[in-house]
Amino acid sequence: MRSIASFMGVLVLRFDDSLDTVLGADMATPFGAQSAWRQLTDLVGRGRAADVAEAVTRLRSIRAMVPAPVRSASARSVAFAAPPAALVRLFGEDEPSIAAPVLSTAILDADDWLAMIPELPAASRSLLRHRRDLPARAVRALDSYGAADFALPQPDTRVDVSVELELELVTLAPVAPVAANDPAPVDPTGPFAIAELVARLDAYQRDHGDLNTPPRKLDDAPAIPAEHFCFETDASGTIRWVDGVPREPLIGMMLGAGPVRVDGVVSGAFRRRAPIANARLVVAGQSAASGDWQVSATPAFDTINGRFTGYRGVARRPRMDERAEPVRGARPAAEAFRALVHELRTPTNAISGFAEMIEAQVLGPAPDVYRERAAAIRGNTRELLDAIEDVDTAARLDQNALMLRPGVIAIAPMLSRAAADLEPLMRLRGAVVDLDRGPAGLGVAGDEIAVTRIVNRLLSLVISASTAGERLTVRAMQEGDTMALAIDRPRAFAALPGDALFALDSEDQGEGAILLGAGFALRLARRLAVELGGGLAIGEDCLTLRLPAALDHDVGQLSSN
Fold first, then answer.
1. Comparing C-alpha atoms, which of 454, 469, 457 is closest to residue 533?
2. Parallel, antiparallel or unpaired: strands 471-479 and 535-538
3. Cβ-Cβ contacts under 8 Å for 356 (sequence gap 6 or more)
4. pTM of the shown model
5. Separation between Cα atoms, residue 248 and residue 407, nearest integer Å
6. Measuring CA to CA, which residue among 546, 531, 550 is closest to residue 409?
7. Share of the chain above pLDDT 70, in %
8. Which of helix, strand or coil describes residue 265?
9. Nearest CA among 93, 503, 471, 543 for reference residue 535
10. Are 434 and 462 in contact (CB under 8 A)?
11. Exposure letters 483-492 (e unless 16+ CB within 10 A, then b)
12. Segment 265-310, tens digit of pLDDT
């Protein structure tokens, strides 16, 4: 009859949650005591008990009959339900693993904490010291215990040597064999699973607002990329712990799925439960954890049954030589170009100087054939020095280190000097250049060396691309505050519309062509013109160089470092 009454009492507990019904149930059996414990803690913890003191007294009387796992599950289920002070004190008197969920989340008044703290064991007071939201009076009460709570218990050294200790061997029940490489089974059942889920949802809504509201907008500031991080996975390959980078992009992600991609090294090692060494991992997104990583990890196994439990590893950013894809935009720095220019200019000047000495017979008479070869060498070295100067100018432009000295350059004399310098090239190509020097007094405001270099490069470009008998016209004119120099395009450029001329670096334009290519010369001329405050336009019939005209007002410095 008693077992039937107990069973009926359990049935009443399932369908009637009133406090009188629970207190009237049979608690003499272990099963009845566990059921009553669960019901009473749920009623008191959620504020549905009329007489909290009587309920807590009954809980304290049956606590010894309830196993620790059941008490721990009850503590977790009411942790976020705002339990009263009496129930918090009841759990606080228990073992640390049972008291921790309630003591770490309970919200009480200062008076309740002051009344409870002296009755709690030292381990529970240590748990409260980790909280940062306790009232100031409660914190002072915890601090008043001083070093007494931190002292380790001393063993009892009073041993009666006359007493013989008898050791009883306990035979443990055999452990059921489990396959070493099988993941640990997960028990989906548990006491008050629905109530615990509801409590967690209530806590989330309390901390983060209503679930129907849109998520908070993240900061648009770019995250600073991290250089390394540590991680752990479970037996399924899902990342469960991360240190060194933000947790959000990685926690809960499975290796090889979603935004966390891995190579075949990780997949093969995971199947064999083998170590991973320098495998490739790519994290998508814009966080500090995104980008390429080199991963090394070791498998972890349970020490009791040898079951595979996951991986523990580290990730670091790959070095330049470890990247599989080509690095875009990698080119020698401007400092390297300038160092190369210095190394080339010195021997080239020496060669040109010795050739000039042979041609002028400074060291004594020389055969005509030697003098002709010396003249050819001097011409070639002059072209090489011009190319070296162009490279140096381009490198200085990249470093914003080009010095331009303000001045006024007369157009007519400059065009005459350029034509005289290029006369051997015109005879070689068989072309004729007509110069229109513009109105008298027309000048350019800017650096004389830079302006002369632009004009010489453009004239040399069109003459070297011309054919025998072709006539080109160079016209200088003034357009408001600008000096415009229009140079006819040779017939060889007719098939290259617009900016296609800037891609002539590898084109072979025959003897007398510019050493570094027509495209390089055009790009350099355009950059210098922009630096001087003008520009270079590519038209259908002519190339038009525009530079600031020399006016009556003062001209300031146009570029500096």
1. 454
2. unpaired
3. 374, 378
4. 0.38
5. 61
6. 550
7. 72
8. helix
9. 543
10. no
11. bbbbbbbbeb
12. 888 888 888 898 888 888 887 788 888 888 899 999 988 888 999 9
